[in-house]
Write a structure and sequence with these properties.
Layout (H helix, E strand, L loop, with lengths): L2 H13 L8 H15 L7 H10 L4 H6 L5 H15 L4 H12 L4 H6 L2 H12 L3 H14 L7 H5 L9 H12 L6 H28 L5
Length: 214
């Protein structure tokens, strides 16, 4: 890949950032994790994977504006159009688009190629561990959500979000058991332990101190 092509990709990514939890730092962590995973696999199309990593969240803004527009599908089409308009071949653009379209769906990644699985794994690694916790908390703050509420004291959080605790537990549930590659599975283990410990401590604190003041 030429310096010009890399600059075009970076500019496209930066111009399409939708929110703070899916900003440039997230994109770089996912890209570097994907490269780490790719080194342990055979037959990876590294250029297509690299492009897909840099552009995988360029549909976030559209999803924020309209939740019925899934960012993976929107981003896949935007990436295909961008690549073709900037000199990449139709075939290459279509392949990158396929990889992006699958990054938020375990089923689509499972039915896709190795590149789909690697991007899926790399993206999910950023949902757990210390960074994942920071992102879940930041998302909750951004959405104006409390740390927890009365429903969280009585039962496990529902998948609709609504509190920071639910954001963390839902991200953890989505990432648990999701990894396709051995390298991602190994990287995930300490991150899972940290996240579980955090949630255990939070729930213990909730049970001791939460509730109305009498």
């Amino acid at each position: 890949m030429t310096d010009r092509e890399k600059t075009l990709l970076l500019n496209c990514m930066r111009e399409n950032i939708g929110d703070a939890t899916h900003a440039e730092d997230h994109i770089f962590r996912v890209t570097n994790a994907a490269r780490d995973i790719a080194r342990t696999e055979q037959g990876v199309d590294e250029e297509a994977l690299f492009c897909a990593c840099l552009l995988h969240d360029i549909g976030r803004r559209e999803q924020i504006e309209n939740p019925f527009r899934p960012h993976a599908a929107v981003g896949a089409e935007k990436a295909r159009t961008f690549l073709v308009e900037n000199g990449w071949s139709e075939a290459f653009a279509a392949r990158v688009s396929q990889i992006i379209a699958a990054h938020s769906s375990r089923e689509m990644a499972a039915n896709g190629g190795l590149e789909e699985k690697i991007l899926f794994d790399a993206d999910k690694l950023d949902m757990i561990g210390s960074v994942g916790l920071c992102r879940s908390i930041a998302y909750a703050v951004q959405a104006g959500e409390p740390i927890y509420d009365a429903r969280d004291l009585a039962q496990k959080p529902s998948p609709d979000g609504g509190t920071m605790l639910r954001e963390v537990e839902n991200d953890l549930a989505f990432a648990s058991g999701a990894f396709f590659t051995r390298r991602a599975q190994a990287l995930a283990q300490p991150a899972f332990h940290l996240t579980f410990a955090f949630l255990e401590n939070l729930r213990e604190t909730m049970s001791e101190r939460a509730g109305e003041v009498e």
